[in-house]
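Holo prediction. Input below; ligand is magnesium ion.
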Amino acid sequence: MADSPIPPSASLSAILNPNALFDNPLFAGGIGLAGLGAAAAFARRAVLSGGAMLRRRMLVNVEISRRDPSYPWILAWLSQPRENPGFVASRLTRIHNLSVATSTRSLDPAGSHTGPVQASFFLQPGYGRHIIRMRDGVYIAVNREKTSTANMSTGEPHETVTLTALWPHRHIFEEVFTQAHALSARAHEGKTVVYAARKLEWAPLGEPRKKRPLGSVILDEGVKEGIVADVQDFLSRQKWYVDRGIPYRRGYLLYGPPGSGKSSFIQALAGELDYSVAMINLSEVGVTDDHLSYLLTKLPKRSILLLEDADAAFQNRKQREADGYSGPTVTFSGLLNALDGLAAGEERIAFLTTNHIDRLDPALIRPGRVDMMVRIGEATRYQAGQMWDRFYGDIDADGSGRERFLRRLDQLGLFGEARGSDVPARHTSTAAIQGLFLFNKNDMEGAINMAEGLIPRTFEPEPQNPAGAIKSPA
Ligand SMILES: Nc1ncnc2c1ncn2[C@@H]1O[C@H](COP(=O)(O)OP(=O)(O)OP(=O)(O)O)[C@@H](O)[C@H]1O
Ligand SMILES: [Mg+2]
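Structure of the complex:
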């Protein structure tokens, strides 16, 4: 009957009669298809939600935020070359998206910004998903992504890396973090990391620098040893402080003329203690009281806080009154608060430096803020001799060159003693002596002959009325 033509009346009754409808092969086929489709959709939904459930139950995620100190370690660990696994695994784990992190470092030891620059490129897995093979049958899925929330202070997009492993393999993460940490420790071995304040974050300032040996900084007799002994004593007394409820902090103030080795000494000390340096320049415009106190609560672990140009906080107060508002800067009370206000961290070694001790407020020099003050002054005879030995010790075996050099400096009045009426008492800096020796590498005679260059130059303004200039008393 199916293949006999349907009379017009029958087709009408078929519309009204469901049985007739199902007898219609065209219609039945359609229903069947729709049913299949619905079943497929249902099955898909079930698989999806089952998958999601499975994923929740079977997988373990670890999310690492960019703000976490382990973030760069993990990125470095991810970009490590890995041994070649089998064909399938190698296809699976090939990373197709890479991003590059470039860091530059000045080759000029003085750290100038104009000299030659060394750049190192460092390939990291880019954004997206990657798979890492840990060992046979153990894989980690990695998803590096930018999230939509940006860091409000810097405007940088926030970033996370999520590591995913199967639940039974969850202990692999401990291994990942241990390896990543060891890798970064190895990269930093013999190096000093210098952090600088970038708005509300501490960011490494360039590549970690090679540790500066403490012996390469020559301070006057006993000065260096005194500070190092004090810091080491402090570091060994944590329990003493904690037992007595005293915040475990110590502050040092190094003051003196420019180029006397203050900053160099602090960097060398950090290297000696295997600490990093967290540096803020207080004369920088843009660092506010709020920034300062916030940053001090988040000091990187095992770091020495270095506040350069501490006098700026006092200077700003006056200057601002004199020449109006010139941008946000740290104020005196802001500095004191940051150093020992409620928000100040519990553990800290701080070094403050200044060229103008006279501009500091006595309130700064109070235990807990500054416990030890040391003047790092102009070059003394002892320092000049020691520096000579470091530079020419091997070619000046009998020390006669050193004697002549020191005598020459004496003749020039450079150790603060006048020589007759035309050689006034004056001083030179250790930085200037270093400059002279660097210019005359392996050339003692050159250094002695050019010693006159150590006389500090005074940059006087052009005389207003050259003829018959009136000199005011110094
Ligand atoms: N006492 C020193 N021993 C060895 N090197 C020194 C010494 N003093 C200065 N130098 C050299 O001179 C340069 C400048 O020194 P540094 O920056 O440490 O001086 P500073 O006292 O911090 O000066 P400023 O007060 O201007 O910040 C560095 O290259 C450093 O190596
Ligand atoms: Mg300095």
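The longest helix spans residues 25-58. That is the main takeaway for now.
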